[in-house]
Structure formats: C-alpha cells, structure tokens
Design brief:
The chain is built from seven helices and no strands.
Length: 180
Amino acid sequence: MPRKYLSTKLRSFLLTVSTIHTSETLIGMLLAVLVGALSGLGAVAFRWMLTNFNYLFFDVGGKALGFLGQYYVILIPAAGGLLVGPLVYFFAREAKGHGVPEVMEAVALRGGRIRPRVAFVKAFASAICIGSGGSVGREGPIVQIGSSVGSTIGQLFKMPPDGVRTLVACGAAGGYLSNI
C-alpha cells in the first residue's frame, strides 16, 4: 500500500514538473538561484577585499608611517576617504551612501534597474573605506552589491520591471544571508 501511494505521488509530481518545464516560473526560479549564488560569491569577494585593504592600510601603511608613532591612525582613514570620494564621484554616483536606500530608490523609481558597474565600484569603494578604518558597516554595501547583480541578470535576460525587481530582492537577500 505505501509503495502504490508513493508511486502515485511521484507520478503526480513528475506531471506537475513536466507542465512547467519551460514556464516563466521555472526560469524565474533558476534565475533567482543563480542571482543568489552570484550575490553570495560577491559578498565573499567583498570580505576578502576588506581583509586585504585593512592589511594594506594598517600593516603596510602603519610600518611606512611608523615615524609618526600612534598618530598614523588619524591619517589612514583620511587617506581612505580621499580615495573613495573621487572613485564614487567619477565612476558610479549610485554607489554613494549606505547601500540600502539606493537600492530602494532604484526599485521604486527605476523599476529595479541598477547599472552593472555599481557592484564593482561599491565593492571597491566600500572595501577601501572600511579597510582604512572608516566608520561604516559592511551589510549595506553587500546588499547593494547583491542587488546590482540581480538587476544586471534581469536586464541581461530582458525581464519586465516586476521580474527585475524580484531579482534585485533575490540579490539583496543572497548577499545579506551570506554575510550572517
């Protein structure tokens, strides 16, 4: 009796799967998984960059500025800020700020469209800022990086605005969850 019940359930499941094999639902699910995975990888790469910039600024820079004594810790965050400002200004102004408000603005006003370069500029600028001792967190940048990945995938597949918004949310969640 349990075997027959199991085979009936399996047959029912396979029929359901066969009816959605090319549906938008399946494509959307596969894209959501792809965006989540890429956002997670982006978060891992971002944390790697943080570690390396921190080493560069405080270990290498600290030794180079050792003649200042302990006061070098004042100059390093200022140098990081001087690097981040022009980087964001000239390459992607959407990468300014904390990250989450900019994603919300893109979803509300632009149908979730975020330029692909925002992920790279945000990752690089935030890693410099945090690595040099800037008083910001890494959650906002990770959310914006993941959202940019989702938006880029949605635009590559020429999805409608609702689909792009959904992938932006998948990217934000994928990046954030990989940071926990």
